[in-house]
Amino acid sequence: MTKDENFCRVALLSRRPLRQLDLGDMDWPDRYVAGIIELQNGDQFQKVIFICIYGHAGDTVTARAHAQQIVQRVGHFALPCVIVGDFNLQMQDLSMILANGWAHSLDEPFEATGPLPPTCTGQRRIDFGLAHRMHATSVQHSPGVADHSLVTYSFPLDHTQSFVAPKRATVDVATAAEVAERWHLNDLSSFHFALERADVDAAWSALSNSAERALCSSLDGCRPRADAWDPRDTGVPHKAIAWKESLVLRQLRRLQRRVVQLTKQLDDRRLRSAIIRGAQHVRALFPCLDLDFLQSNLTEDQFQIRLSRLVEDLAHLINTREGSEQQARLVSWRTKMVSDPVAHRRWIKHRAHLKVMWEQMGPAVKSWMQVWNSKSASPPDFQSFLDMTPRPTQVACTLAITGVELVRAAKTMVGKACGPDSWRVEDLLLLPMEWWSLFADWCLQVEVSQRVGVKPELH
């Protein structure tokens, strides 16, 4: 269905309070729906945009333009967002979105060990998700409506910090001659042994590791590019950098961290000097803080007693200051509600809307749960039709791949983004032709053995 012929209907269902978001004048407004949800992380709140999209079936150009328009428009809000739905496109059709950094694929972390399954009839995966500043921790697949599978992503909604890949060794060998010299020092017996046993995983690990040893001067503390990996959480930032806290409170927290560290390193003179230099502004505001003993010649017992007392004083001062600032923000909000009738009415309408929505959601959830929990249909007529359909004739195909052909193909990919293994084409092109010839042997073994590496665990 197109916009001129009929209307499509796209919906978002949420167990959390959700407010519909208008992205402005869109070319196909009936093919998307957007909502914004406020998530709580401790005592902080974060708004996240969720969008469901339905792309144009059989029209790749229009479907791609529709997806690009939505991604660009939602980027103006500068908020974390998740875009899911039936794009009627495959992920490679959205290369412009991914290459420009407007959004990233939610499937990418799970494709490190193999492709994800198709989601509709045929071999196409057209139901997936894009996101910005939101990263999925798992993906699951289950039978869905009609001929499409349901794709489920899980997110750590307690915070919206980024996930990162493992640390990789830096390619710092610039010339091809130096790379060739270093590469010939590799022992490739493990590669040939694995290739003879058709163990394509072990063979690729040996070949990739040989490339890293040739291109990188140091591998310490880095994860090999051939290893499988899971996204690593960057963690929630320290409370001291929260935007709503004053500069004074952040300075007090910084001083507290340094003093606590000093209790573990009593003989660290540089840390003492750093505390004294960094506490000048705080000492002027809070003369009650005793910091002079840091420059005195006290016995170790006396120094520990004074230091423990300073830690307690700082903790009490921070708690007091934090409470006063929270109270000040509450008073400011109440003052705004009293002095600004428009803001007051907006807040009352918002609360009333949430109450009505929750009251209406109960019966709807109960009725839809019966639909969602019903067993999927398996029409016998369709199965009999498949049984009668003749299979295509098998044709023997023998590939001939050479290192020269692989290098020629790789040169067409210069400037493209690297995959989950962090290999850039520009780096691999520095390797000698012998490496590419072995790579061609590996590709031929994959074709002969019909093994494409580790099969991911799909749910």
Overall tally of domains: 4
Spell the H/E element sequence. EEEHEHEEEEEHHHEHHHHHHHHH
**Structural class by helix and strand composition:** alpha+beta
Which CATH class of the largest domain applies here? Alpha Beta
Question: What Rg, in angstroms, do the CA atoms define?
Answer: 30 Å
Q: Let me know the largest β-sheet.
A: 6 strands, mixed
Strand content: 5-15%
- Oligomeric grouping of the chains: single chain
* N/C terminus separation: 32 Å
What portion of residues is helical? 40-55%
* CATH architecture classification of the largest domain: 4-Layer Sandwich
Enter the CATH topology name of the largest domain: Deoxyribonuclease I, Chain A
**Strand order in space, largest sheet:** 1-2-3-4-6-5
Mean model confidence by pLDDT: 82
Q: Can you tell me the overall shape? A: flat
Q: Count the DSSP helices.
A: 14
Organism: Cladocopium goreaui
Protein name: Endonuclease/exonuclease/phosphatase domain-containing protein
InterPro entries: Endo/exonu/phosph_ase_sf
Structure report:
- This protein is α+β, with helices and mostly antiparallel strands and 459 residues long.
- It folds into four domains: 18-160, Endonuclease/exonuclease/phosphatase (Deoxyribonuclease I, Chain A, 4-Layer Sandwich); 176-229 and 392-449, no CATH class; 239-339, no CATH class; 340-377.
- The chain is 43% helix and 12% strand.
- It is built from 14 helices and ten strands.
- The chain has helices spanning 60-74, 95-99, 176-183, 189-196, 200-215, 247-264, 269-278, 280-285, 300-339, 341-372, 380-388, 403-411, 425-428, 433-449, and strands at residues 18-20, 32-41, 44-54, 81-86, 104-105, 127-132, 138-143, 149-154, 163-164, 232-233.
- Strands 1-2-3-4-6-5 form a six-stranded mixed β-sheet, with helices on one face. The protein has a two-stranded antiparallel ribbon with strand order 7-8.
- A hairpin with a 2-residue loop joins strand 2 and strand 3 (44-54).
- Helix 3 (176-183) packs across helix 5 (200-215) and helix 9 (300-339) packs across helix 10.
- The longest helix has 40 residues, at 300-339.
- It starts with 17 loop residues before the first strand and ends in a 10-residue tail after the last helix.
- InterPro entries: Endo/exonu/phosph_ase_sf.
